[in-house]
C-alpha cells in the first residue's frame, strides 16, 4: 500500500528553528502500514513507515506508532463493566455491614442485665479526676443506684454533696444527684456491691490499711490505678489482696485509652477489664458498658497492668522529644522502640503479646504519648524545655504516675534480664543523673542491631 502525501508543510512545525522554509515543499510517501490485527482494536498500535524526500536532502525513513481509538461500542462496554464492578463492590460492602449489624443485634438481645439490676451501691475510693469521672459514669447507668465517693478532702466532699460539682477537678461538670461524697470509710463501704479503687498506686497501701476493717471479704475491687509500687515493685493486683490480708479478694483491673474529661463529656470510649475470674470480668463489663463506653474482657491481668504502668514512663519520653523539638521522625521512632520494650518485659513476666497490641497497650500508649491532656507527657515536655522536675511537680495538682514508676520499671527489667534503653534513659533523667540532650545522644549512638 502506497500513497503520496503532498500538503505544503513549509512552516516551522517540522523544523528545529523558527526560520520558514524557502525550498520546495517536502514530499511524504506512505510506504507501509502494519496492523497487528485484521480489525483495529484498542491498545494495538499501527506502525507507519514514511519516506521523506526533498531536493537538498537524502532519503529518510521514519517510523511512527499510532494507537487507534477504540470503537464506540467497545467504549460503551468498558463503561458498563466499570459501573457493574462499582455496583458489585458496593453490594459486598453493604452486605458485610448488614451482617455485622445482625450479629450485633443478636448478641444484644441475649445480653444479661441482672448485674446492673441487682447492684444498689458502688463505692469509689478517691476524689481525683478519674475517680470522679467513673463515679459519674456508673451513677448514670442507674438512677436508683447509690454511688459513694470516699474522699479525704472535706472541701471536695462538701462541694459534691451541696452543689453536685467536684470543685477541684470538674468545677463545670455537674454530677448526677445519686453521687454522694463522704470522708467516713465505714459509711462508704457499708452495703457496697462493687468498689472502684482510684487512689494513686504509691498511696494505695497506706490508704487501704486505714479502711481494711470495713471491707467485706467478697467485695469485688475494680482497680483504676496504673503503676508499680516503688519499693516493692508490686502491681495493684498484688497490693490490694496483700494489704487487705485476703488472697481471695475479688480483683479486676480496668484500663485503656481514656481521659477523665472525655468520659465526663460522654464521648465514645473503649476500655478493657482484666480478671482471672471470667465470670467476674463479665459482671463488671455489664456494670460499666454503656452507649458511650465499650468494655472488652480479658484474663491477662499481668499484661493489662504492666502496659498501664509502663506507658506512663514512655509518655514522659515522648514529652521530652516534644520539648526538645526533635521532630516527628524522632517521636515515631521513640514510641515504636518504647512499645517494643514494654512487650519484651511484659511477655517475660507471662503476659500475652496480643494484650500489648490491644486497648490497654497500644491504645493507651498512643493516647498518653501523643495528646496534650496527658499529665505524664506534660512532665516530659517541660523537662525537655529545661524546667527542673521539682518545679514541675510542685506546680501540678494531679499525680503523674510515670515519675515514681520509672525507677520501679528499671528494677523490674533487671530482675527479668530485659534491656530497656528508652525507659532506662527516662529513669536517669528523673533521677537528675542525665540531661535530656545527653540521653538523646547516647540513645542514637547505641549499636545498630536487628529489629526484634
TrEMBL record:
Residue span(s) of domain Glycerol-3-phosphate dehydrogenase NAD-dependent C-terminal: 300-440
Record GO biological process: carbohydrate metabolic process; glycerol-3-phosphate catabolic process; phospholipid biosynthetic process
Pfam family, one: NAD_Gly3P_dh_N
Major localization listed first in the record, in broad terms: plastid
Enzyme Commission number(s) from the entry: 1.1.1.8
Reaction catalysis annotation: sn-glycerol 3-phosphate + NAD(+) = dihydroxyacetone phosphate + NADH + H(+)
Keywords for the protein's UniProt record, in alphabetical order: Chloroplast, Lipid biosynthesis, Lipid metabolism, NAD, Oxidoreductase, Phospholipid biosynthesis, Phospholipid metabolism, Plastid, Transit peptide
Keyword tRNA processing on entry: no
Cellular component GO terms held in the UniProt record: chloroplast; cytosol
Protein's cellular compartments: Plastid, Chloroplast
Domain Glycerol-3-phosphate dehydrogenase NAD-dependent N-terminal per the UniProt entry, residue ranges: 121-280
GO molecular function: glycerol-3-phosphate dehydrogenase (NAD+) activity; NAD binding
Pathway where it operates: Lipid metabolism; Membrane lipid metabolism; glycerophospholipid metabolism; Phospholipid metabolism
Superkingdom of origin: Eukaryota
InterPro entries linked to this entry: 6-PGluconate_DH-like_C_sf, 6PGD_dom2, G3P_DH_NAD-dep, G3P_DH_NAD-dep_C, G3P_DH_NAD-dep_N, NAD(P)-bd_dom_sf
Family statement drawn from the similarity comment of this UniProt entry: Belongs to the NAD-dependent glycerol-3-phosphate dehydrogenase family.
Protein name, UniProt field: Glycerol-3-phosphate dehydrogenase [NAD(+)]
Native source organism of the sequence: Tagetes erecta (African marigold)
Amino acid at each position: 500500500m502506497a500513497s503520496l502525501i503532498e500538503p505544503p508543510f513549509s512552516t516551522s512545525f517540522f523544523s528545529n528553528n523558527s526560520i520558514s522554509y524557502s525550498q520546495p515543499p517536502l514530499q511524504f510517501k506512505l510506504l507501509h502500514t502494519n496492523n497487528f490485527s485484521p480489525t483495529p482494536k484498542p491498545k494495538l498500535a499501527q506502525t507507519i513507515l514514511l519516506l521523506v524526500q526533498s531536493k537538498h536532502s537524502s532519503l529518510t525513513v521514519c517510523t511512527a506508532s499510532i494507537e487507534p481509538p477504540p470503537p464506540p461500542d467497545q467504549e460503551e462496554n468498558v463503561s458498563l463493566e466499570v459501573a457493574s464492578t462499582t455496583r458489585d463492590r458496593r453490594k459486598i460492602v453493604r452486605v458485610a455491614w448488614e451482617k455485622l449489624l445482625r450479629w450485633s443485634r443478636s448478641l444484644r438481645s441475649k445480653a444479661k442485665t441482672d448485674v446492673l439490676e441487682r447492684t444498689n451501691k458502688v463505692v469509689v475510693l478517691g476524689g481525683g479526676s478519674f475517680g470522679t469521672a467513673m463515679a459519674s459514669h456508673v451513677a448514670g447507668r442507674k438512677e436508683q443506684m447509690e454511688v459513694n465517693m470516699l474522699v479525704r478532702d472535706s472541701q471536695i466532699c462538701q462541694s459534691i454533696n451541696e452543689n453536685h460539682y467536684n470543685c477541684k477537678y470538674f468545677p463545670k461538670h455537674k454530677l448526677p444527684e445519686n453521687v454522694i461524697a463522704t470522708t467516713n470509710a465505714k459509711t462508704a463501704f457499708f452495703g457496697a456491691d462493687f468498689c472502684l479503687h482510684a487512689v494513686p498506686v504509691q498511696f494505695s497501701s497506706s490508704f487501704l490499711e486505714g479502711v481494711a476493717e470495713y471491707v467485706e471479704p467478697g467485695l469485688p475491687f475494680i482497680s483504676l490505678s496504673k503503676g508499680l509500687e516503688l519499693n516493692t515493685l508490686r502491681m495493684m493486683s498484688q497490693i490490694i489482696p496483700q494489704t487487705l490480708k485476703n488472697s481471695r479478694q475479688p480483683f479486676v483491673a480496668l484500663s485503656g485509652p481514656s481521659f477523665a474529661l472525655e468520659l465526663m463529656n460522654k464521648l465514645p470510649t473503649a476500655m478493657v477489664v482484666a480478671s482471672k475470674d471470667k465470670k467476674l470480668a463479665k459482671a463488671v463489663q455489664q456494670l460499666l458498658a454503656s452507649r458511650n463506653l465499650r468494655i472488652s474482657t480479658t484474663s491477662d491481668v499481668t499484661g493489662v497492668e504492666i502496659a498501664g504502668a509502663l506507658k506512663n514512663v514512655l509518655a514522659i519520653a515522648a514529652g521530652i522529644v516534644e520539648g526538645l523539638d526533635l521532630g516527628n521522625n524522632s517521636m515515631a521512632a521513640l514510641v515504636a522502640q518504647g512499645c517494643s520494650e514494654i512487650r519484651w518485659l511484659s511477655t517475660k513476666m507471662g503476659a500475652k503479646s496480643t494484650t500489648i497490641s490491644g486497648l490497654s497497650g497500644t491504645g493507651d500508649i498512643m493516647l498518653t504519648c501523643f495528646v496534650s491532656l496527658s499529665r505524664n507527657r506534660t512532665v516530659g515536655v517541660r523537662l525537655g524545655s529545661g524546667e527542673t522536675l521539682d518545679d514541675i511537680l510542685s506546680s501540678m495538682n494531679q499525680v503523674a504516675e510515670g515519675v515514681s514508676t520509672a525507677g520501679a520499671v528499671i528494677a523490674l527489667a533487671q530482675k527479668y534480664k530485659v534491656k530497656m534503653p528508652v525507659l532506662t534513659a527516662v529513669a536517669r533523667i528523673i533521677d537528675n543523673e542525665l540531661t535530656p540532650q545527653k540521653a538523646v545522644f547516647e540513645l542514637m549512638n547505641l549499636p545498630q542491631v536487628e529489629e526484634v
